[in-house]
Amino acid sequence: MSQEEPAQAARYMIDRSGKVGEVVGSYLGSVYLRPPGGGLEWSVRPDTLRDPTPQELGAALRPMGPVGGGR
Q1: 33 phi and psi, to 5 degrees?
Q2: Average of pLDDT values for 6-21?
Q3: Model's pTM, two decimal places?
Q4: Measured distance CA(71)–CA(64) in Å, rounded
Q5: Which helix (H) or strand (E) holds 14?
Q6: pLDDT bracket for residue 22 (50, 70, 90)
Q7: How far apart are CA 43 and CA 53, in angstroms?
Q8: How far is CA 1 from the centre of its chain?
Q9: What is the mean pLDDT of residues 12-27?
Q10: How far apart are CA 24 and CA 10, in angstroms?
Q11: What is the pLDDT of residue 1?
Q12: Does the pLDDT value for residue 33 go beyond 90?
């Protein structure tokens, strides 16, 4: 019988420019972030990141466009 790993909650951080990103990994002294909902990753130094406030995180995770793809 195999055990499944528990799902890990996404971790979000804010870079120096104020952009919120989901932490997707780190490599050779850089942290890699991806925009909430997907998109191109970018890298930053870990010392330039901070935790988002609840308001910043809520705004970043709020859907931006119509839902459902209606015509």
Answers
A1: -120, 155
A2: 85
A3: 0.75
A4: 17
A5: strand 12-14
A6: very high
A7: 21
A8: 34
A9: 96
A10: 9
A11: 42
A12: yes
d(Cα 21, Cα 60) in Å, to the nearest integer?
A: 9
- Structure-token pair, residue 15: 């870079």
Q: What does the block give as tokens for 49?
A: 């990141």
Q: Which amino acid is at 54?
A: P
Q: How does strand 42-44 pair with strand 30-34?
A: antiparallel
Say which DSSP state 61 is in. Answer: H
22: which strand partners? 12, 34
Burial tier of 38 (Cβ tally within 10 Å: 0-12, 13-18, 19+): exposed
> Which among 43, 16, 48, 13 has a CA at the least distance from the CA of 28?
43
